[in-house]
């Protein structure tokens, strides 16, 4: 039966107001609440529903992150993943490194499907899924808002600029989850306790033979410019004038 | 807004040390990570399913439509999720389907739910209470029949004590229970103020009803307790016929409108069947034995509502620009956020010291209950039980006064905006106003504390409490950083001791009315001393933690220290004159001629 691999990234909780460190080397994470990337929660929820419908047998949650990321994997196990793998890595996770890591695990585990969030809310890169598909040389369907098995293929409705697009991909494949794919479940208390007994393997990039180098280099972190004070206009005509002057219409 | 994560974490794990409980057999299935996860799950549910509907259910209160109660459908969704996630079952024994989550964590979750939407939370609070009564006093058969439905949230519970003419004085209830052949009783009577008395939110409603069996002794000694379901329940838990419980009206309340409040008639057609729970004529005693938990639950609601108000006031004060610092006369300089003004800071600190002090009080009581559930021997059990009994009227009442006061100041911080329905602070005030009244009115708890709990067992519980407070005093003196506060607390303890002696002396002479005339003042003063003690503990924990804290945590811990100092300087000094008044056995209210009012 099918295995599904789900990428679970540890990110700053969406409720936290992000602060850039004064020296521009990153953002403040000290004492800040961390959570599963919300899009990855959606990815996991979709996998759980597939298993509940009998379309998959096993769900493996994978996280690349520090030791503390076991917390997020525990949440994933409490939501219903069967087992978890932590690939230890300190500091920011580059999408290419994440893709290489998932690729290495995919080669070991031979999943029928890898589902990841369409993007992570920390770097908003939206690259891990596509890069993984390229490295693995398998089809991909990004920004999925509906996914259905049709025999050994998957019918995916994608959210694109023009509306919705339907693709059919062969398995194994990579899917990235969009917001409307589903609404993740609430963790049930008994499942939190059961999660303690589920396997959580810890490994690292070197053991998987993953190259931690990346062609992308982070130069500096800066907060976005403060929003300018608004101006009041007296009527629609003045508004249109202003927008024209600013070259916005 | 919800109670912030950082304070829950501080109070649950750093102050009452929930993680240490996991070393005990009862809680061995848990560890820090599972407890974190439980709290995280509660927060998410509260944020997504409770909070967004708090204003809605205030405006659209429950309605009577064709004899049925109509409530916003979001209530059913939220409560189904809550039950399915296991939050009602959380603190119960595994043996009856519970998860043995420590009370400190259960009550912290309850505080989160109540801060998000106290109306929705009301149903689960009542259901936990009813399940607890059935767990302790029910027969095996009754537990099998009713507990699974209650713990899974398919059945909701109610507590039917009050009647139209009998609220504080339950001795005077008139509801009757006639024994029938076969062991059941025919129930007949009118009940008033019943929260959750009729609705379609759950498959069934399990009423716990106080009624008198004819031929019993008069007064409270003749009251028995009955399980009366809305729909009869078969031995397998399946639902049967309608049980003749009729809705006679809805009460239209000032606040807390998310929980429907009803007047009910039991057996208007003579077809209402009840099962007795516990011994005949011992109903009130059974009920009260379990009231401690329910009353601490009410205290938790008061704290949660006060806390939600404080969070809103704080956010507003950081944003609202108004005025300039005193001494800055130049109108071309920018205005400052009102947070900069001394009086606004005073109001915010007062709120912080009341709501965080209140939370510390409730979680301390919850911790005592966890200790009681895992007591090593009968002696320790008796001491802990005495402490819980003594602290219950305080845990119920103190926040109902001072966290309500916090809601008042939250409105004040928002100025005119606070008086409108555009902001939640006026609703939070209205919601919280109930806590002063139900589960025993404020004055009744004063009498309970001074007339019953303090003299009980030769004053053993008060002595045990004083010993604990003295331990903290001694520790604070040796730490050095809060030794002035330690001295102040010591002096306040002395004041309690003197006032208590005078009152007990007068009671021994048979002057009960005079002795207890100022019981409410005593309740308030003892409450302040207990909260001051919990503040001193919080400050000690914060001071220790500061040594290794990172930048974000530093501000948090320094805030705790400042709030502790504030409480000792602005609040605790009230108790000296209050206790002196109690000790003087002042009779002014008693001597006032009725015609003089
Ligand atoms: C919204 C709401 C929900 C409620 N939910 C429930 C429920 O689910 N189940 C239930 O059984 N009841 C419920 N109650 C009833 C509540 O417990 C009673 O209102 C409360 O016990 C007070 O009773 P009463 O209203 O009859 O007031 P009274 O008893 O008439 O009291 C009026 C005032 O007199 C004072 N007083 C009365 N007797 C004495 C005395 N001996 N000494 C000193 N002072 C005294 C009281 O402190 C109070 O200030 C609810 C009430 C409300 C408003």
Write the layout of secondary structure elements.
The complex is a heterodimer of chains A (249) and B (597).
Chain A: E1 3-7, E2 10-12, E3 34-36, H1 38-52, E4 58-65, H2 70-79, E5 83-88, H3 95-109, E6 113-117, H4 128-136, E7 140-150, E8 153-160, E9 163-170, E10 173-177, H5 189-195, E11 200-204, H6 205-208, H7 236-245
Helix pairs in contact in A: 2-5, 3-4
Chain B: H1 5-15, H2 18-21, H3 32-50, H4 54-59, E1 63-65, E2 68-70, H5 73-85, H6 103-116, H7 118-137, H8 140-151, E3 155-160, E4 176-179, E5 185-195, E6 204-212, E7 223-229, E8 231-233, E9 239-242, E10 245-250, E11 261-266, E12 273-276, H9 283-319, H10 342-373, H11 378-414, H12 425-433, H13 442-453, H14 456-479, H15 483-508, H16 512-515, H17 519-546, H18 551-571, H19 575-583, H20 588-591
Helix pairs in contact in B: 1-10, 3-6, 5-7, 6-7, 6-9, 6-10, 7-8, 7-9, 9-10, 9-11, 9-12, 10-11, 10-17, 10-18, 11-12, 11-13, 11-14, 11-17, 13-17, 14-15, 14-17, 15-17, 15-19, 17-18, 17-19
The structure holds flavin-adenine dinucleotide.
Can you tell me about this structure?
The complex is a heterodimer of chains A (about 250) and B (about 600). Chain A is α/β, with parallel strands linked by helices. Chain A has one domain (about 5-245): HUPs (Rossmann fold). In chain A, about 30% of the residues lie in helices and about 25% in strands. Chain A has 7 helices and 11 strands. Chain A has helices spanning about 40-50, 70-80, 95-110, 130-135, 190-195, 205-210, 235-245; strands at about 5, 10, 35, 60-65, 85-90, 115, 140-150, 155-160, 165-170, 175, 200-205. In chain A, the strands form 2 sheets. Chain A has a 9-stranded mixed β-sheet, with helices on both faces. A two-stranded antiparallel ribbon of chain A has the order 2-3. In chain A, helix 2 (about 70-80) packs across helix 5 and helix 3 crosses helix 4. With about 600 residues, chain B is of the alpha+beta class. Chain B is about 55% helix and about 10% strand. Chain B is built from 20 helices and 12 strands. In chain B, the strands form 3 sheets. In chain B, strands 3, 4, 5, 6, 7, 10, 11 and 12 form an 8-stranded mixed β-sheet that branches. In chain B, strand 1 (about 65) and strand 2 (about 70) form a beta hairpin. Chain B starts with a helix and ends in a 6-residue tail after the last helix. The relative contact order of chain B is 0.09. The model of chain B has no long low-confidence stretch (mean pLDDT about 95). Classes of the chains: A alpha/beta (about 250), B alpha+beta (about 600). The interface of A and B includes residues 32, 33, 188, 189 and 196 of A. The complex binds flavin-adenine dinucleotide. Flavin-adenine dinucleotide binds near residues 158, 160, 162, 167 and 168 of chain B.
């Amino acid at each position: 039966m099918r295995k599904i691999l789900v990428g679970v990234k540890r990110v700053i909780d969406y409720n936290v107001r992000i602060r850039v460190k004064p020296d521009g080397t990153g953002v403040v994470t000290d004492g800040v609440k961390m959570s599963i990337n919300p899009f990855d929660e959606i990815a996991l929820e979709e996998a759980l529903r597939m298993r509940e419908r009998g379309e998959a047998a096993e769900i493996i949650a994978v996280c690349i992150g520090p030791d503390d990321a076991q917390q997020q994997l525990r949440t994933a196990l409490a939501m219903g993943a069967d087992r978890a793998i932590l690939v230890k890595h300190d500091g920011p996770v580059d999408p290419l490194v994440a893709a290489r890591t998932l690729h290495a695990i995919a080669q070991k585990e031979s999943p029928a499907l890898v589902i990841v969030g369409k993007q992570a809310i920390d770097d908003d890169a939206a690259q891990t899924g596509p890069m993984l598909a390229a490295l693995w040389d398998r089809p991909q369907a990004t920004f999925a808002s509906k996914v259905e098995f049709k025999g050994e293929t998957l019918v995916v409705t994608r959210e694109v600029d023009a509306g919705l697009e339907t693709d059919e991909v062969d398995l194994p494949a990579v899917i990235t989850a969009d917001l409307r794919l589903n609404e993740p479940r609430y963790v049930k208390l008994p499942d939190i306790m059961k999660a303690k007994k589920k396997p959580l393997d810890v490994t690292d990039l070197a053991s998987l033979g993953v190259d931690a180098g990346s062609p992308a280099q982070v130069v500096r972190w800066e907060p976005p410019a403060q929003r300018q004070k608004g101006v009041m206009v007296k009527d629609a005509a003045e508004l249109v004038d202003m927008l024209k002057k600013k070259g916005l219409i | 807004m919800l109670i912030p994560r950082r304070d829950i974490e501080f109070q649950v794990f750093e102050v009452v040390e929930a993680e240490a409980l996991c070393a005990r057999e009862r809680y061995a299935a848990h560890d820090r990570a599972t407890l974190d996860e439980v709290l995280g799950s509660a927060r998410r549910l509260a944020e997504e399913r409770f909070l967004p509907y708090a204003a809605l259910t205030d405006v659209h209160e429950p309605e009577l439509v064709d004899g049925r109660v109509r409530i916003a459908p979001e209530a059913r969704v939220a409560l189904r999720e809550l039950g399915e996630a296991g939050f009602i079952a959380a603190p119960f024994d595994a043996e009856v389907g519970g998860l043995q989550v420590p009370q400190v964590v259960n009550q912290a979750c309850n505080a989160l739910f109540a801060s998000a939407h106290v109306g929705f939370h009301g149903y689960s609070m009542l259901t936990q209470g009813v399940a607890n009564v059935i767990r302790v006093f029910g027969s095996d058969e009754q537990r099998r029949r009713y507990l699974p439905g209650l713990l899974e949230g398919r059945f909701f519970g109610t507590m039917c004590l009050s009647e139209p003419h009998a609220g504080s004085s339950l001795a005077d209830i008139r509801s009757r229970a006639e024994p029938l052949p076969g062991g059941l009783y025919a129930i007949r009577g009118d009940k008033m103020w019943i929260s959750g008395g009729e609705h379609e939110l759950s498959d069934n409603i399990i009423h716990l009803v106080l009624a008198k069996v004819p031929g019993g002794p008069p007064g409270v000694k003749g009251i028995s307790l009955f399980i009366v379901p809305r729909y009869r329940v078969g031995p397998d838990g399946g639902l049967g016929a309608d049980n003749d419980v009729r809705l006679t009206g809805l009460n239209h309340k000032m606040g807390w409108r998310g929980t429907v409040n009803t007047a009910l008639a039991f057996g208007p057609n003579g077809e209402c069947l009840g099962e007795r729970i516990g011994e005949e004529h011992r109903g009130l005693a059974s009920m009260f034995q379990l009231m401690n938990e329910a009353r601490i639950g009410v205290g938790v609601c008061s704290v949660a509502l006060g806390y939600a108000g404080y969070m809103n006031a704080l956010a507003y004060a950081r944003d609202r620009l108004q005025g300039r610092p005193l001494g800055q006369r130049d109108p071309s300089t920018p205005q400052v956020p009102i947070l900069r003004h001394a009086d606004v800071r005073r109001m915010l600190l007062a709120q912080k010291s009341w709501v965080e002090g209140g939370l510390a009080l409730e979680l301390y009581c919850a911790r005592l209950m966890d200790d009681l559930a895992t007591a090593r021997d009968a002696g320790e059990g008796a001491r802990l039980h005495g402490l819980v009994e003594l602290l219950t009227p305080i845990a119920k009442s103190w926040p109902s006064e001072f966290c309500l006061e916090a809601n008042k100041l939250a409105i004040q911080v928002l100025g005119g905006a606070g008086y409108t329905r555009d902001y939640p602070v006026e609703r939070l005030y209205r919601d919280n106003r109930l806590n002063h009244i139900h589960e025993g009115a404020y004055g009744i708890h004063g009498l309970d504390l001074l007339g019953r709990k303090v003299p009980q067992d030769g004053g053993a519980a008060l002595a045990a409490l004083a010993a604990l407070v003295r331990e903290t005093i001694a520790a604070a003196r040796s730490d050095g950083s809060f030794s002035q506060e330690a001295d102040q607390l010591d002096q306040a303890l002395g004041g309690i001791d003197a006032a208590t002696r005078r009152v007990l002396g007068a009671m021994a002479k048979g002057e009960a009315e005079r002795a207890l005339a100022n019981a409410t003042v005593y309740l308030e003063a003892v409450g302040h001393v207990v909260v001051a003690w919990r503040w001193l503990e919080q400050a000690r924990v914060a001071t220790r933690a500061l040594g290794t804290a990172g930048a974000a945590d530093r501000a948090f811990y320094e805030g705790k220290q400042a709030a502790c100092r504030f409480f000792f300087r602005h609040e605790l000094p009230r108790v000296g004159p209050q206790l002196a008044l109690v000790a003087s056995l002042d009779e002014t209210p008693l001597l006032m001629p009725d015609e003089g009012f």
